[in-house]
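User: Fold this; tokens only.

Assistant: Input:
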Amino acid sequence: MDKKLKDLKDEVLVVTNAAEGNTPHVVEDIEPEGGLKTRPLAGAKPSEQFMRIDRNVSIPETFFLNMKRQFERPSDFRFYHLPADLLASAKELVGLFKQPESNSALLDEYRLDTEQYVQSRQQAQQQSGGGGTEQSTRWSMEQVDWQQLERMGVTPETLGEPGLRRLLNGNESAVLTLKTVIEGIEFETPACIRLAENPDGTLRNEIECCKRYPELDTPYFNVEFTPEVKQNLLEKGNAGCVVELELAGGVREPCLVSLNPKTTGSITYRSAG
């Protein structure tokens, strides 16, 4: 196993098995013989030690390749990269993983395409130094509006290889210093960038500026947070309960709400109910 995986603190690896009712488990480690050491997601806490990963930098391709060889039905297993801070809402997340089809709109964003990593590993074995960034990421360099990003001081070089791969795979960037000019005066602001896909397949740059304090006193999706929810968000980083929000069409849906630790902006996940 790549020991560097334990030094990365962005996300944890979650696995489900159809034969076990898709009950989610958090991966603690990959054992030398290729097995998984796990524990149930329902009891996981952010403060506990798990195998931390960055799926765009160091995913254990060898494990996925061995798994394909050893298991009769490797497709029964599903793997997800889950933001570590969401472990605070672990009990409420279990239902999402147990019903992967009905919650696919949410889970697909976090599901790992194991076949992609198997192919990546096989290509690396066949080609010395083969495979560029464009061959192993969700989107290619050419699809990004680099002109807009360059005006803000962001280039592939400033992002670096790990940061570039994160961006091209749809993940949020690290906190960057963005530059903008207003009436001839240059300003700098810390912010995170994420690529999002338009209905026509083109990409847009979504920018979220970092704020010192979260904005909890204004309605969020037409709903005002209760004092208890505000306190939980400030102290724990998550609402501590399911919150009904009007995501679309004036219809309230049960959701999990947490705070982005990098920007203090609110993050919403549809709940299984």
